[in-house]
Design a protein that fits this description.
Oligomer: single chain
Shape: flat
Number of domains: 2
Helix content: 25-40%
Radius of gyration: 29 Å
Structural class: alpha+beta
Distance between the termini: 93 Å
Number of helices: 10
CATH class of the largest domain: Alpha Beta
CATH topology of the largest domain: 2-enoyl-CoA Hydratase, Chain A, domain 1
Length: 394
Amino acid sequence: MKLSKSEKQSNSGSYAVITVLACILTALVACFLTLFFVQKKWNKYTRLQDLDAYIQKNYYLDLDQETEDALVDTMLKGYVAGLGDRYSQYLTPDEYQGFLTKESGRTVGIGITVVANEDGYPKVLEVQQNSPALEAGLQVGDVITAVQGNDILEYGYAESIENIKGEEDTSVRITIRRGNTESDYEIVRKTFDIATAYGEMLENQIGYIRITNFRENTVEQFLSALEDLRNDGARGFIFDVRDNGGGLLESLEKMLDPLLPEGIIATATYHGGVTETVVESDAEELDLPMVVLVNQNSASAAELFSASLRDFKQVQLVGTQTFGKGVMQVTARMPDGGGLSLTVATYQTSVSECYHEVGLAPDLVVELPEDFTIGISDRAEDTQLTAALALFEN
């Protein structure tokens, strides 16, 4: 049946009206939703404004700019803390710059690690390579008795340690007791590379590589140690990630690449269940026996390093149960110059479950002596390292 011209015009007009009504309805819904979310946000910030107004009016002291800035920083830290996630945090501009320096594998200072001795004075446990302290002649076992002429016990231990720290190109005077002799050292604080991976050959040609963190400069240090030990005839490797709290996933990937076979090594699962590959390897791999030393402080990237070697090379883990951090943070710069470190995903190897809040169970459980300090105490007392070396004999 054919429609008359007037009927066609009538239908066309109806379609136009329906289209206009649909557009109006869509606009109304959009406006309503916008107003709803704006009102929700407005209510949130109104609570803050009300709180601020009350403080400004009733606090018994005048608020200077330093206090105002502290209020804002604390507010931002508290906002992120409201997530209830211990790994997410707001960083002030100064903290963010410190974070960037730390992740690069560099630090500012004199380069020593200390612990209180039986008399309450700081005893030097470690002198960092390439550090101002090493250049000045400080040694492991030195006892610091004074900082800037102030006796440690009189001035306070924590305060004295804090005074050793400082900005680049500033100096600090410390008094060292070595044996029965005391000497003053004027040391200029510098920025220097932290040794986060270093190796040595152990008995029976077993290469040992200690990895303390996964920083930007760790990759070069690790690959250099690996190559040197292989060139020296290493017939196996022990990778020590005890007390390693993790670090950069990018560095981890570059360190695993020469050890593992080709393929997808690890994946991350983001908001909404979106999964992405975060670690993969090429075909080149290390064809030598390996063992990994772990403990309760091996966390995050250190655990992924261990799990990857276990899953793809059947490497045995020796030590104690690991920490159990299988979540990933991204740290972004904020407009105010600060930073936001936010948990964005869980991660795991592509063949095993996520170990978050669980940790990795070692194949061979070995406890350390009660007073043993890794990297400081006599290596002959390192029961975990001894157990790892014994595996190569079998």
